[in-house]
Amino acid sequence: MVSAVSQSSCLTDFGGLRVLTSLRLKWDEWSDGKQATHSRPRFIHSQRHSSNPTGARYGVLFPTTENKAQKRMPSLLLVVLLVEVAVHLVNTIGATAINNVLWNIYLALPTEVSKQADEKNKLQKEYLAIRRDLKATSSQDQFAKWAKLRRQHDKQLEQLEKTKASHDASKANFDRTAGIIRWCATSGVKFIMPWIYGTEPMFWLPSGWFPYYVEWVLSFPRAPLGSISIVSWQTACAAAVSLFSDAIKAILLFALGARSTQKGPALLIFFGPILLPKAIGYYRRFQATPKSPNPTTGALSPSAIRAISVFCSLSLVFFIFALPPFATENIFYRTASRLQAPTDVLFTRLATLRPGESLTHDDAVLRSKFVNLESRLLYLQYGPDVLISCPFCSTEDPNTYWFYAAPAILKPYIFNLFALSIATSAPFADAWVSRWRSFAATTTVVIAIIELWTTAAYERTPNAKATRYTDIEVLFQIMQTSRCLALGILDAVVATLIWLSATGRMFAKPLSPAARVESVIRQLLTTKSKLSAVGIVKNTSLRDDDLRGHIEDYWTHEGKLMREVMEEREVVEGINDALTRINIRDITRDAEQYALNMFPKPPEPPDDIVIRATGP
Questions:
Q1: What is the distance between the alpha carbons of residues 336 and 470, in angstroms, rounded to a whole number?
Q2: Which residue stretches are annotated as topological domain Lumenal (predicted)?
């Protein structure tokens, strides 16, 4: 067999090379024995690790396309990845949205379809204008004008329907063509590439790193053993694109929830995929809910105006106090000193900024309180007023500062509760205003509890590591600004809710049955009084000779005018045209039904009563 191999090595034609390859394969199977059935043949190693510049394959020197494939691999890898990204984007955005965008772009081009769309829009505007004029014209008082508008309306409607049908057909053809092109450019390419590049290795695996069956699976279906096939690469790219998309969503959810609490992002990431589709579904159902044809929106009541004025004034006051000029002074920022600056240096700089370059009484007291680093950290947490005024506070028990600062923290919330309780109390407010009292009070209490808890649980030790005054976190200033902003936003929201509910635009409660009955009775009484007034006026006009004469003259002139109009040729043609398109029987039946509804027939007596009445 060895001599056969040596003799075959002299062959140069392609058929001889094929024979040489098969003989080498047999030689490897004979030399390796049973190992050839359980592991990769050794000639594959020569294929993957050969330094032959011509690209030896199966241990034989003949030119192959391996080097060309390796040159194409980076572009092919990138093409497969881009195709998977395109497929994922199309599936995420949706075919309908993509078709609509492409259709709008296509209509912007100077084509016949765009001209047809412009013509349709023009016809639709003209049709709507004619329809509006037709509705505003009375068929009894202005019959000639009504008949002319009716003919124009029917003619315009017929043209519009033809144009719309042609436009819809063009849109359907465009959607079908766009769908075919989109499928061929994404899914079609994804399905065709494995057939074209099925035998091309994407890249080679390191020798001996993976078992034989793993390499066989990764090279499935037609790639060389020990390489990654295009099918495996497509699967990996699809999984990577999906994971990257999920990671982007998780990062967005994390960014949205990172400002609330420390546990918020984890809970948001966990419950976000569950709650977000439900929220979208609720929003779509709310949008699809049929609106009332006649929304009952009314003017504001005096109590609502008064409550809205109070809440808007409070909101404006809190927003003003949230501005920097009203913030409590921070001596570290004022003197541009770091937290570890000596006390003498700190207050010497502060004295140069005071009037007369001398410290005030409060500055002197605060200087005596700065005995160690802990006192400075407590200053950043609770502010200067607490350190200056507290008679029982001590750095050995930092909680005493919180007990002293709690009433000052609650002061704005108590003031806001007092103001809203007066604005929404029964003597000054109606039901539309008082319904938001519990919401405003509860929210105020919740914000106050959150601020108290945040101040008490604040970790002040990180400030001790700050080397610059710009790195210091001043909690008392942050809480002061946040407190004013939160109360201002709350009062503005309550004022908005009162306005929406009082005008009936939102949050309108249905009336009780008794209130609805009372409203209907009141409307009926008003209608009855108007009908009585009309009857009195008509009775007076018929009994008075002068008024009756004016009425007769008016109707005589109206009859003469209508006779002249009815004698015109256009009116006659319009009447004849209308009679050809109108079913007189249906109109007569509708008129009789209307008359019966307005003046129903009295019930007929039973037959036995009629028989006794007609008897002798």
A1: 8
A2: 1-76
Three-state SS for 221? coil
Are residues 192 and 337 both part of a single domain? no
Kindly report, residue by residue over 65-107, the tens digit of the pLDDT: 444 444 444 578 888 888 888 888 888 887 788 888 888 888 8
Angle between helices 143-183 and 112-136 (to 10 degrees): 150
Question: Domain check: are 47 and 75 in the same one?
Answer: no
Read off the amino acid at residue 495.
A
pLDDT single digits (tens) 417-452? 998 888 888 777 777 788 888 888 999 999 999 999
Q: What's the CA gap between 414 and 433, in Å, rounded?
A: 20
- Using a CB cutoff of 8 Å and minimum separation of 24, what contacts does 29-34 make? 30/1
Tell me, letter by letter, the H, E, C secondary structure of 455-514: HHCCCCHHHHHCCCHHHCCCHHHHHHHHHHHHHHHHHHHHHHHHHHHHHCCCCCCCCCHH
Q: Is the full-model pTM beyond 0.85?
A: no
pLDDT (tens digit per residue) in 276-326: 666 776 666 666 654 444 445 567 778 888 888 889 999 999 999 989 888
Residue 380: closest CA among 348, 450, 347, 333: 333
User: What amino acid occupies position 431?
Assistant: A
Sign of CA dihedral 402, 403, 407, 408: negative
Is the domain of 56 the same as that of 109? no
Task: Give the C-alpha separation, 332 to 377, whole Å.
Answer: 12
Is 136 found in the same domain as 22? no
Domain termination residue (choose one: 138, 166, 196): 196
Give the phi and the psi of residue 64 in degrees, each rounded to 5. Answer: -130, 180
The answer as to whether 520 is a domain residue is: no
Helical segments of 197-263, H only: 212-218, 230-257
Determine if residue 225 is left, alpha or beta; phi over 0 gives left, psi from -120 to 50 gives alpha, anything else beta: beta
Total number of domains in the chain: 4
Judgement on whether residues 351 and 491 belong to the same structural domain of the protein: yes
Same domain, 307 and 404: yes
Domain termination residue (choose one: 196, 219, 246): 196
Out of 50-59, 240-249, 389-398, give the one with best mean pLDDT: 389-398
Write the CB contacts of 480 (distance below 8 Å, at least 6 apart in sequence).
327, 328, 383
Q: Using only C-alpha atoms, what is the Rg of the chain?
A: 45
Residue 561 has pLDDT above 90, yes or no: no
469 touches 429 (CB < 8 A)? no
State the DSSP H helix or E strand holding residue 303, giving kind and residue range, or none if neither. helix 302-321
Q: Confidence band (pLDDT; 50, 70, 90) for 413? A: very high
Beta strands in 262-339, from DSSP E residues, in sequence order: none
* Confidence (pLDDT) at 175: 85
56 and 76 together in one domain = no
The answer as to whether 522 is a domain residue is no
Is there a domain that residue 236 lies in?
no
Can the peptide bond before residue 221 be classed as cis, meaning omega within 30 degrees of 0?
A: yes
Does some domain include residue 136?
yes
Cα separation, 297 vs 288, in Å, equals 21
Range of the domain at 174: 68-196
What pLDDT is attached to residue 164? 84
